[in-house]
């Protein structure tokens, strides 16, 4: 077993030692290897701090890359060896006990930042040297002009000793002489460069203004110009240069020659291209990444009004299961195979595929008829995913959901297009997956509204935007008000009053249902206390009671019992004033652990009502084991009773349920009573209480006061 260094400082020094040994042969320094290691040690410490920082410090990582140039590590090989060393050993020796996946990701970002810092510092250093050379060259212009008339020897010393390429040509472009540095750059031994003229050195990537500036200079209309220019060497390779061309005049000011100064920037350009590629392409799949895709999408959306675009947003179905069961390495191999297949689907002009991250990919097509093309592209993608992918000897079935957005350029921003595609993709996934869906503006609007409501829920509770309406519970025997059901509402600043069906599912999804439910419970119990203070401890039908709904999330929350007890004690209300309603579907198949809090509340005297009874297909025998005292019969059983005569089948069903409930000492409450005939029929069938628009719509608590007052006065 290999012995590891003991402490963090030992590990840090070990990393610095490995780094110095890897880079020292590629440096231009007079220091010894040990001295060079001491120079790298503080840089290693800075890298370690960036790796383990709470937030990633990209400027610090770039600064370390720049510091390499200050340490004379200017050879691109030194950067390559540094990045290899950081990739292989930084997490190992400086990662401590952090999450390996997160540290590897941070290490990759750190390497990109170091490379950018190195390139920036190297460029700054080169520009400084170039400026010094240019100044010397400009100064040498006078020397050259004077040498042409006085001292050829003095000019020759400057010409031959320069480290950059220098060439002299006449105003017709005929090369008269070049120095050794320029011949080395072109890889030739001919001082005349084969008798070629300057105008022959064209290249496809010449900037549009290059030859315009040249013509102005030889006509004497400008003194010099500076451009980046490529040249073909005799062997066919490309030489990239920073080119400065100056006009030389005689003693009378008449143009005589042109002087070219060339700095070889080929290696630096290749490094910049490599860094650009790494910054715009996904490291795993080689596909364009999110930033590159946004550039292309923005360009496509900024095209003329006659242009259109089509976008396919793909998310793999069940990819998380692959990572969880086979590991991230297998998941990565699956993503690489999917990327290769997608790349093969988008080969036509105007098409591209990119990876946005994780298992999300996008395909873009542009042109004049993208309505047809984007459908065909989506079809090719779905067909490409049909064949299983072999990973670690397993044949994995690949499925994907695609959201398609198509439209005219200039109508939407890139962010809006991606949002619509993302929403549409999730619509395809919700419909079962392995399919594609077309974007629907109305569906998008509903999702956006839903998202806005979701994000606004916490602040709405803090701002007091929720209020409660109460719907009376009426005793069918004598028509007296025995209590009310509390129904929460949201007074939204933009959408007005929203019913619970609009926001309760969102509150359950986000977990806000627990504090919201606690607030509703406390406000409702306080209202029950006010009613009892006003009407006494009982009415003709018994104690005035408040019914409060419990969501499945509240039912499983560990603080349910204690919260209820605290609220009852704090408000001074007896438990028999409270009835908690739980939907039948929430209790289907419930085990003893789930029923335990309800049993404790029931033992305290709190009534438990089984809401929406008859919709959950529960076994009626289960009623005996549930701690409920009230059945709330779903309105679907009694709707036919709104007209006379009622459906005899429904009458038999309700009669049987009422008989069963009463045999179990349960009272029966009916929801959705809307006509007098319906109320009378339910009374005859033996139902105990009812609620519905026939008696009153949900309203403020004073409305219940009025109804109760009518009952009290007859």
From TrEMBL:
Residues covered by the PAC domain = 225-277
Q: PAS domain location, by residue? A: 151-221
Task: Please list the residue ranges annotated as the EAL domain.
Answer: 450-712
The record ties this protein, via SMART domains, to: EAL, GGDEF, PAC, PAS
Query: What Pfam families does the annotation carry?
Result: EAL, GGDEF, PAS_9
InterPro entries listed in its UniProt record: Biofilm_reg_signaling, EAL_dom, EAL_sf, GGDEF_dom, Nucleotide_cyclase, PAC, PAS, PAS-assoc_C
The protein's matches in SUPFAM superfamilies, at most eight in alphabetical order, are given as:
EAL domain-like, Nucleotide cyclase, PYP-like sensor domain (PAS domain)
Show where the GGDEF domain sits: 307-441
Highest rank taxon of the organism = Bacteria
Coiled-coil regions, chain positions = none
Q: Which PANTHER family match?
A: BIOFILM ARCHITECTURE MAINTENANCE PROTEIN MBAA (PTHR44757:SF2), DIGUANYLATE CYCLASE DGCP (PTHR44757)
Q: What protein name does the entry list?
A: Cyclic Di-GMP phosphodiesterase RmdA
């Amino acid at each position: 077993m290999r012995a590891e260094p003991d402490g963090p400082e030992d590990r840090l020094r070990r990393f610095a030692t490995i780094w110095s040994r890897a880079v020292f042969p590629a440096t231009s320094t007079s220091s010894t290897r040990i001295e060079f290691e001491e120079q790298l040690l503080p840089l290693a410490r800075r890298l370690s701090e960036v790796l383990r920082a709470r937030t990633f410090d990209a400027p610090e990582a770039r600064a370390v890359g720049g510091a390499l140039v200050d340490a004379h590590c200017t050879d691109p090989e030194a950067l390559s060896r540094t990045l290899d060393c950081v990739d292989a050993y930084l997490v190992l020796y400086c990662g401590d006990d952090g999450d390996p996946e997160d540290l590897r990701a941070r290490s990759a970002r750190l390497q990109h930042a170091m490379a950018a810092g190195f390139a920036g510092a190297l460029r700054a250093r080169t520009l400084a040297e170039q400026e010094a050379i240019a100044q010397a060259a400009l100064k040498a212009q006078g020397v050259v002009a004077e040498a042409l008339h006085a001292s050829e020897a003095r000019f020759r010393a400057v010409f031959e000793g320069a480290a950059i390429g220098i060439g002299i040509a006449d105003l017709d472009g005929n090369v008269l002489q070049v120095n050794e540095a320029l011949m080395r750059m072109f890889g030739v031994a001919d001082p005349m460069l084969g008798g070629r003229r300057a105008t022959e050195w064209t290249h496809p990537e010449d900037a549009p203004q290059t030859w315009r500036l040249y013509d102005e200079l030889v006509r004497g209309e400008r003194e010099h110009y500076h451009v980046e220019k490529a040249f073909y060497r005799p062997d066919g390779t490309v030489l990239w240069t920073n080119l400065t061309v100056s006009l030389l005049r005689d003693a009378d000011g008449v143009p005589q020659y042109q002087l070219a100064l060339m700095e070889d920037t080929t290696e630096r350009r290749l490094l910049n291209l490599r860094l650009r590629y790494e910054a715009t392409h996904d490291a795993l799949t080689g596909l364009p990444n999110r930033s590159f895709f946004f550039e292309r999408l923005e360009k496509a959306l900024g095209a003329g009004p006659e242009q259109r675009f089509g976008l396919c947003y793909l998310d793999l179905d069940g990819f998380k299961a692959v990572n969880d069961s086979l590991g991230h390495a297998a998941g990565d191999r699956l993503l690489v195979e999917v990327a290769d297949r997608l790349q093969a689907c988008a080969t036509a002009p105007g098409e591209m595929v990119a990876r946005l991250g994780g298992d999300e990919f996008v395909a873009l097509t542009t042109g004049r008829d993208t309505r047809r093309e984007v459908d065909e592209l989506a079809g090719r993608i779905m067909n490409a995913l049909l064949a299983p992918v072999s990973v670690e000897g397993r044949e994995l079935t690949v499925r994907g959901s695609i959201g398609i957005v198509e439209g005219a350029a200039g109508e939407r921003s890139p962010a809006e297009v991606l949002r619509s595609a993302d929403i549409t993709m999730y619509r395809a996934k919700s419909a079962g997956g392995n399919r594609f869906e077309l974007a629907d503006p109305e569906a998008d609007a509903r999702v956006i509204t839903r998202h806005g409501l979701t994000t606004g829920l916490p602040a709405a509770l803090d701002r007091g935007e929720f209020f409660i309406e109460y719907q009376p519970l009426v005793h069918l025997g004598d028509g007296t008000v025995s209590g009310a059901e509390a129904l929460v509402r949201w007074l939204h600043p933009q959408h007005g009053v929203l019913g619970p069906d609009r926001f309760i599912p969102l509150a359950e999804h986000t977990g806000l249902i627990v504090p919201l439910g606690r607030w509703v419970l406390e406000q409702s119990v306080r209202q029950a206390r006010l009613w009892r203070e006003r009407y006494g401890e009982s009415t003709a039908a018994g104690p005035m009671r408040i019914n409060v709904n419990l969501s499945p999330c509240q039912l499983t929350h560990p603080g349910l019992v204690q919260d209820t007890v605290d609220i009852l004690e704090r408000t001074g209300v007896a438990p028999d004033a409270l009835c908690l309603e739980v939907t039948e579907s929430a209790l289907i198949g419930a085990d003893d652990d789930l029923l335990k809090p309800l049993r404790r509340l029931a033992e305290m005297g709190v009534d438990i009502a089984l809401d929406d009874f008859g919709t959950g297909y529960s076994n009626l025998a289960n009623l005996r084991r549930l701690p409920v005292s009230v059945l709330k019969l779903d309105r679907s059983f009694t709707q036919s009773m709104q007209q006379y005569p009622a459906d005899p089948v429904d009458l038999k069903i309700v009669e049987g349920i009422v008989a069963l409930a009463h045999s179990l000492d349960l009272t029966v409450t009916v929801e959705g009573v809307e006509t007098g005939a319906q109320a009378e029929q339910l009374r005859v069938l033996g139902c105990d209480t009812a609620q519905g628009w026939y008696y009153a719509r949900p309203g403020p608590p004073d409305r219940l006061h009025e109804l109760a007052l009518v009952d009290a006065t007859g």
